[in-house]
């Protein structure tokens, strides 16, 4: 069975935790955690939890091809625009670059709204599409196996899946997407849903130090989980956004000492503002997080014994850690492969969301 919780509606009442404690959890003051792929033995408990949810945020067996919303709306009659009308709906070619949640949902909505043409999804990761938020929470703690993060991918989408294929360029005039293996995929309409990527540490030599990690993919989560489980040293998290704060919470749950450094005035200040960020800072410190705001790490130093130390601004304390690092810094929009100067009338939709940091827009 599949369980999906709309966390934008969840108010944290916790009724589901009482009804299905093996599926839902709400440790301390944290947000709801849940297993999206529980065993069928839990079905009765999950259905009780669904019925008990005051805001009806729990959805059971909602698959990728079954997207809620109005039924297909009337399409305009064919006109001078070849991308409109029943002709395009029946035989058009839509290519989606990005085979994660946004791309899968977009494909499902296209089919829901009556698009019967060719549909191709291109993803640079070789895995089945998967849900990323659990990677910094349940996966790191060991509560959820990686295979439970897989998103439903129904055959009724009737799509061609090109997984493990990186898009390297866009031929605007010819309406083709170039792939890393040299192939070209033609389109009538293109949806760019590549999302963001983990921004690597800017100094390649420092980024190669043992224990310096980023967190974005399944491979990243696997490596970080292994390192967290293999020692008891202090972890440094660079960046106090959602991912950094979640990693810090996991470290404390696992009993690991953790220091969080952020150049902003408070954790999550960019997303929630300074007032709520101040509350988040208080909660983190109450749970043992060594939090340093208004602080910028300008470099990482290694030593012969495998230790690492950050070089911070002059007002920062003289830190020293060994081995275990999580550099879950900011992300950047993953759109650097696109052609320069492509116009909106080229048939391309952009569904990328700008990150808080500078974006990669080498078009």
Written account of the structure:
The protein has 363 residues and is of the alpha/beta class. It contains ten helices and 21 strands. It has helices at residues 15-19, 43-52, 86-91, 101-112, 138-141, 204-207, 218-229, 242-253, 269-272, 274-286; strands at 3-5, 24-25, 33-34, 58-60, 93-97, 118-123, 160-163, 167-171, 176-179, 184-186, 189-192, 196-198, 235-238, 258-261, 290-292, 297-302, 307-312, 321-322, 325-326, 331-333, 348-350. The strands form seven sheets. A five-stranded parallel β-sheet has the order 7-6-5-11-21, with helices on one face. Strands 15-14-13-19 form a four-stranded parallel β-sheet, with helices on one face. Strand 8 and strand 9 (176-179) form a beta hairpin. It is globular. The two termini are 42 Å apart. 33% of the residues are buried. The model is unreliable at 63-82, 318-329, 340-344 and 352-363 (pLDDT under 50).
Give helix % range: 10-25%
Question: Rounded to an integer, what's the Rg over CA atoms?
Answer: 23 Å
What oligomeric state is this?
Answer: single chain
Average pLDDT reading: 78
Shape designation: globular
